[in-house]
Design brief:
Length: 244
């Protein structure tokens, strides 16, 4: 497999550089993304058209980023399911979904599958570069867009009888999970052990009625509120995670 050979050569030449796998059917688009990534000190590990091949390469070579054009992929290839599968198998991997669709369901499906960002193809290269840079070195925080049917905003979880009562530490960990941080990264940032992080995550999953960090992240994206760096919880909808 040519892409695999190229990936092996890249890893051998650049063992300490951040690397990305690009997935899509349009070579010109992938070339443009590759050039943009170079501006943020990230190199292209491989460019492939098959989401399934991208999963194999990700598991084999442990990249930092997966950029996938879901719009032009063969529907039978289930690009979001493949992305979800890669994220589940490669700790620390982040994913950016590219599409021309602004349909809220498409955006939500991408986040439900574990995407860290959803980028429209009309996005300027400078904006895409900022998105990728922020995935690994966060310095900008946005309040998430609220759904029209979301419950009213409250200043603290205790103000809503139906809201899960999250501790301050659980709020902190949830916000870091949404950023795509691994358990090890969270432990270092909060000066706790990974076992402590796992303990808090288990409590979070139980309170939110979810079973993994992807669903917790989706819950927070759609129904959590970030105000001054503090998460305020509300009721979450049923999860829509594509099958892996």
């Amino acid at each position: 497999m040519l892409a695999d050979l190229e990936a092996r050569e890249f890893v051998a030449r650049h063992p300490h550089e951040r690397a990305a796998i690009l997935v899509g059917q349009q070579p010109l688009l992938l070339d443009a993304v590759e050039q943009m990534l170079a501006r943020v000190s990230m190199q292209s590990l491989a460019k492939v058209s098959s989401p399934q091949e991208a999963v194999v390469l990700a598991v084999e070579h442990d990249p930092d980023l997966l950029v996938i054009d879901v719009e032009d992929s063969d529907p039978d290839a289930r690009p979001l399911a493949c992305m979800h599968n890669a994220l589940a198998q490669v700790p620390g991997l982040r994913a950016v979904v590219m599409s021309s669709s602004e349909d809220p369901h498409s955006v939500n499906d991408a986040f439900a599958a574990g995407a860290s960002a959803y980028v429209l193809k009309r996005t300027r290269s400078d904006d895409l570069a900022t998105v990728v840079r922020q995935l690994f070195d966060r310095s900008i925080y946005h309040a998430p867009v609220r759904h029209a049917d979301a419950p009213p905003i409250t200043s603290s979880p205790s103000e809503s009888a139906n809201s899960p009562r999250l501790t301050r530490r659980e709020h902190e960990i949830l916000s870091l999970v949404v950023e795509g941080r691994t358990n090890g990264e969270i432990a270092k940032l909060l000066w706790v052990t990974e076992q402590t992080v796992k303990f808090h995550l288990a409590n979070l999953y139980r309170k939110l009625g979810v079973s993994n960090r992807t669903q917790a992240s989706y819950w927070a994206h759609g129904f959590g509120i970030v105000t001054g760096g503090v998460w305020s919880a509300s009721s979450a909808p049923p999860m829509r995670v594509p099958p892996s």
